[in-house]
Design a protein that fits this description.
The chain contains 14 helices and four strands. The chain has 326 residues and is mostly helical.
Length: 326
């Protein structure tokens, strides 16, 4: 076999692998659905699929904001604690009979403020995002415990209940909100200068700064948006339970990051998108649902989720090296 033939075959194989990498999240999603349907007859029923999507919606909405943060080569570990605190504040305002519209706007504003605090420490004082958001994670959780005194805050409001429990044409409202959020985020990233700046900063921050892109302002907005979406998830979660739990959101930051990574967004920034994140969140939800239907212990479920995350990171690393080599 000639050298030319070998090179051509290698290039063809590399192109096929890159094509598989491009659509790997969809392939994994379809494959997992097929396996789940074979393992349990209850999986493909409409009530079960609606239940999966509704449970995924809270983590997925947070993961949409996390995607933007990771696209600019950042990280936000505070989203779970912000979710807990904003949910507690919303419940507190409900018990004080504050008008619902003011509650919703105020809760979202508090979430955005937390996110912008993260962005301010990262951009103005140059503190690494991991350290900044870790600190705010602890602070927000402590504020939640102080505010609630460690007890759930039970609320009663029919209009508020509808947010987490209502349906429109038979579809749970949290699912509709989730798709609206992802549709808006996808449009912003693809068709606006803000979206292009996000990718540019993640690809090369210094080059973006020299090109005149307002790097600090964009990163501040990205972290603020992540905090706002955490508050939106808090509203849905609190409405769903009709109570604010001081332990709400524990570990949700890891699930959100996992959804982003499984969805194909690179931890080094500049590559990925919210479409893959949505599929990644659904993969995590389907995995949980399938294991529950099979009565698998929650301890083993955690192991399975951890393995999925490690495999996703490994695959992303391998294909990134392959792409760089070509």
């Amino acid at each position: 076999m000639s050298t030319t033939t070998v090179v051509a075959a290698a290039k063809k194989q590399g192109s096929l692998l890159l094509l598989l990498n491009k659509y790997r999240v969809f392939i994994i999603f379809i494959g997992l659905c097929l396996v789940a349907s074979l393992l349990s007859d209850a999986f493909l029923t409409v009530p079960n699929l609606m239940n999966v999507a509704r449970q995924v919606s809270i983590t997925a909405i947070i993961a949409a904001g996390m995607t933007l943060v990771i696209l600019v080569a950042g990280i936000d570990l505070s989203v779970g604690s912000v979710m807990a605190f904003t949910g507690a504040v919303a419940a507190g305002m409900l018990t004080a009979n504050v008008p619902l519209l003011l509650i919703l706007v105020g809760t979202l504003a508090i979430g955005a403020l937390f996110g912008m605090c993260n962005g301010l420490f990262v951009t103005r004082w140059g503190i690494p995002a991991f350290i900044t958001t870790l600190g705010l994670m602890v602070i927000a959780r402590g504020m939640t415990l102080v505010y609630t005194k460690g007890y759930p805050l039970v609320v009663s409001n029919d209009a508020f209940r509808y947010i987490g429990n209502g349906k429109i044409v038979g579809i749970p409202l949290p699912i509709i909100i989730m798709f609206i959020v992802f549709g808006a985020m996808a449009w912003v990233l693809r068709y606006t200068s803000f979206g292009r700046y996000v990718y540019a900063i993640g690809g090369n921050e210094e080059a973006s700064r020299l090109s005149g892109i307002p790097v600090n302002a964009i990163k501040l907005a990205v972290y603020g948006l992540c905090g706002l979406l955490s508050a939106l998830s808090a509203i849905i979660y609190t409405s769903r339970l009709m109570s604010a739990q001081p332990t709400a959101g524990t570990g949700v930051e890891l699930d959100a990051i996992a959804a982003v990574i499984i969805g194909g967004t690179s931890l080094s920034g500049g590559k990925g998108g919210v479409g893959g994140t949505l599929i990644g969140a659904l993969i995590m939800g389907i995995l949980d649902n399938t294991l529950n239907l099979m009565n698998v212990s929650p301890f083993y479920q955690s192991i399975a989720k951890g393995l999925v995350i490690l495999i996703a990171v490994l695959v992303d690393s391998k294909f990134s090296k392959l792409k760089a080599a070509q």
